[in-house]
């Protein structure tokens, strides 16, 4: 049966549908599928590849000063000067100490005179006692006087020797052979008792002193082997950790580590103050510390700390994984917790991803597969279908 459509009704229905379509809310655009670059997390043994710069120092070093106070009259020691044992380094003004020594010598002479007088008196009274002209008690008093005079003389002699030593202490001499590495007083300065005048590095073994950060100092032990490279000699020599500071430096918050140079010929080449580079090696028989390192581009900030994106190959989506960063090693971050190894994480574009977002894996151009002949034929057929459909759509009234 044939139905006759009313043209007016059709026009009205068409206009109403157009109005409804224009007033309806547009659908939200679908979230784009982003391409990400992945890497597989793996734990590697710590190789102590970090190189620390330090300087060569003497194993034994002393700050020499006067054992008496006074005004510095002369100083012959200069920085870098080689000195021998017994060589004069500095001199105090000796006038006051000479006067004190002379006074002590005068007291010795006076005490000697008193002792001699008491000795002669005792001798005379002893002769009288032998003749029974005096009592024994009187002779004992003369003996006591003689002993007191002798004690006074002994005291004066000791005081005289002390004053003589005091005068001798006004001359500062090197107790051992070495090199002057510092001068801390100038001529004319009034020196307190024991104040340092020069710093003397004794001849003998040499150490390389480096500053190690707190998070890496805990892995260094006394006796651990190390490789030392002298900048001037440009050659690598063996060393051994001799001392690790018990506390951090209050300013730099680093720990001083002293590495002893093993061989004597190398120590002879190690000039005091020379620059040296140290790499610490794992101790013999010790297991290497396993570390997980990630490029810093893989990290992003999450509430409470850092995180990375884990890739789920089954759903082709990403999931946030919190991690704990121990330290930075160049452009890499050392992960202390949060990853075990073997996970696939996103290392590029992490700041534009969301939880559960679907992604595609980015491949380099040389890794992309070459299209097969079957895919080329399918693409050609698809293009032909589109081309043939276009005139047909155009031919419709």
Give the gist of this structure.
The protein contains six helices and 23 strands. By secondary structure, the chain is of the alpha+beta class.
- Calculate the mean pLDDT score and round it: 80
Low-confidence stretches: 367-397
> What spatial form do the alpha-carbon principal axes imply?
rod-shaped
Q: Total number of β-strand segments?
A: 23
Based on CA atoms alone, the radius of gyration comes out at 47 Å
Q: What distance lies between the first and last C-alpha atoms, to the nearest angstrom? A: 25 Å
- Spatial arrangement of strands, main beta sheet: 2-17-21-20-19-18
Provide the helix percentage. 25-40%
Sheet with the most strands? 6 strands, antiparallel
Helical run tally = 6
Number of domains: 3
β-strand percent reads: 25-35%
Query: Based on helices, strands and strand pairing, what is the structural class?
Result: alpha+beta
Give the topology, please.
Blueprint (H helix, E strand, L loop, with lengths): L6 H17 L10 E7 L2 E3 L6 E7 L2 E5 L4 E6 L6 E2 L4 E5 L2 H36 L5 H33 L2 E3 L4 E6 L6 E2 L4 E7 L3 E8 H4 L7 E6 L4 E10 L9 E8 L2 H6 L5 E6 L9 E6 L4 E3 L2 E8 L4 E13 L2 E6 L6 E5 L10 E3 L11 H23 L2
Parallel strand pairs: 1-23
Antiparallel strand pairs: 1-22, 2-17, 3-12, 3-16, 4-11, 5-7, 5-10, 6-9, 7-8, 9-11, 12-15, 13-14, 13-16, 14-15, 17-21, 18-19, 19-20, 20-21
Written overview of the protein:
With 397 residues, the chain is an alpha+beta fold. The protein has three domains: 34-44 and 289-364, conserved putative lor/sdh protein from methanococcus maripaludis s2 fold (Beta Barrel); 52-59 and 203-280, Elongation Factor Tu (Ef-tu), domain 3, CATH 2.40.30; 61-178. The protein is 30% helix and 34% strand. A six-stranded antiparallel sheet has the order 2-17-21-20-19-18, with no helix packed on it. Strands 3-12-15-14-13-16 form a six-stranded antiparallel barrel. Strand 19 (305-312) and strand 20 form a beta hairpin. Helix 2 runs antiparallel to helix 3. The chain is rod-shaped. The chain starts with 6 loop residues before the first helix and ends with a helix.
